[in-house]
Amino acid sequence: MKNKILEEVLHSKNLSQYGIVDWGVTTVSRPITWKYYFEWVNKGLNGILKYLEGERRDKREDLKNYYPEFKSAIVFQFSYAKKKFELDKFYKSKKSNGLKIASYVLGFDGIDYHFNLRESLNQLGEQLREIDPELNFKLSLDTQPILERDLAFRAGLGWFGKNSMFISKKEGSFFILGSLLLSKNYSLNEKVVETDHCGQCTRCADSCPTDAIDLETRTLIADKCISTYTIEQFKDIGEAPKGMESSNGEIFGCDICQEVCPWNKRLLRIGKYDNEEVIVSEKEAHLREFFLERPLENILDELKSLSNRGFQRLFKSTPIERTGRIGLLKNIRFFYGKR
Ligand code: B12
Ligand code: SF4
Ligand code: SF4
Question: What is the mean pLDDT of the chain?
Fold first, then answer.
């Protein structure tokens, strides 16, 4: 009985208000692709991303290492594709200064998704607990030692693209994965595990300006990826990845290998977002005005005149707070004078 009510909650309109476009269930706690991850880290392909090594690597071998009570997981896709398409139009307009910010940054009202999606997942968990007060749950949202793409794979939501993105036939890859790890198994309907739909295509690897995609292993060489350099390299040290100068002006994250993917282009072609209202929150508008609409010189001047604290205050709770003033200065300086 409880599983019927639970399923109703999950199928109701309830989910779209959170921006959830699909969800799936799995009861399997061990990742199917663990060996690929293990080999990747052991080859040192994680580069500066040291948090993927050692104890945090080993924890990922089984969800139960993180949550011993685990019986099942509900994996949700939080889409930001609509924002991506709106941004593409903006980048082609005269307002754009030629710089780009990864679309997930602006896709959740300019707020760091670790805050607002955590809140959504918690609310959903509490709704389930109202049906079954004996239920316990934990969240998985990016930072936990969990192979989230594999978890979504086990839940039958899509496949691993050659660009290493998790792709869904229906939704492409512009979405964030977030999950509820449950202490109970409600025997909800499970989707069949998806097969590969990349075929002979290699557009993502052909388009990557820094040659960061290893087609053979379907993984990235982390230190060659613009996303690593522009988000995770907080200090002004080390060289930018070779080839970054021929990118599209990415100053925070990178979407290039997703933009060219036919599974994302398809969403645009079928006009999925054509008639949707464009909403720009205050935080998003601020990020856009500060970084995407002014001459680079003005941005650099303002960043230089701010203190680190001042920067933190100005961009509090946005994704760019993570990289900090020095990291952003490094990224923007890279393009200054080159365009
Ligand atoms: C570290 C990390 C990064 C690193 C490394 C990315 C990478 N591809 O490895 C950097 C900083 C570069 C990065 C960038 C981005 N990231 Co990131 N990142 C992560 C994090 C924290 C861990 C990923 C990881 O373990 N990588 C190591 C590789 C080996 O593992 P994997 O990516 O899970 O890949 C699996 C498959 O490749 C498979 N596999 C490997 N070889 C083979 C071979 C075959 C034949 C098969 C079938 C499978 C297979 O096994 C792997 C393990 O399960 C996850 C969150 C999480 N906890 O999982 C988010 C996550 C992957 N990132 C995410 C996002 C949104 C991004 C960016 C789009 C942000 C941006 N716009 O800049 C880019 C995308 C870059 C790209 N093309 O992947 C989302 C991806 C959602 C999705 N649809 O896939 C995640 C899941 C966060 C989330 N909760 O939504 N990220
Ligand atoms: S995110 Fe950008 S740099 Fe990284 S693999 Fe994709 S295209 Fe290459
Ligand atoms: S661009 Fe082609 S090869 Fe790359 S992920 Fe998309 S479908 Fe797969």
Answer: 94
**pLDDT tens digits, 225-240:** 999 999 999 988 889 9
Report how far residue 20's alpha carbon sits from residue 80's, in angstroms, rounded to the nearest whole number: 10
Q: Is the minimum distance from the CB of 198 to ligand 3 under 6 angstroms? A: yes
136 with 238, same domain: the answer is: no
The answer to whether 185 and 274 have CB atoms below 8 angstroms apart is: no
Query: Closest Cα to atom 7, ligand 3: which residue?
Result: 198
Residue 238 in any domain: the answer is yes
**Overall number of domains in the chain:** 2
Q: Is residue 50 part of a domain?
A: yes
Q: Is the shortest distance between the CB of 121 and ligand 2 below 6 Å? A: no
Domain that holds residue 256: 203-335
Angle at 11 between CA 7 and CA 12, to 5 degrees: 115
Instruction: Report if residue 97 sits inside a domain.
Output: no
CA–CA separation, 301 vs 281, rounded Å?
25
What's the pTM value of the predicted model, to 2 decimals?
A: 0.97
Q: Which one from 62, 109, 142, 214 is the annotated catalytic residue?
A: 142
The tokens for 110 are 């300019």
Annotated active-site residue 214? The verdict is no
Q: Is the separation of the CB atoms in 194 and 153 below 8 Å?
A: yes
What's the whole-number mean pLDDT along residues 183-198?
94
Asked whether residue 276 falls in the same domain as residue 160, the answer is: no
pLDDT digits (tens, 9 = 90+) for 73-117: 999 999 999 999 999 999 999 999 999 999 999 999 999 999 999
Same domain membership, residue 303 and residue 207: yes
Q: Which ligand is nearest to the CA of 204?
A: 3
Residue 339 pLDDT grade (very low, low, confident, very high; cuts 50, 70, 90): low
Residues 153, 282: one domain?
Answer: no
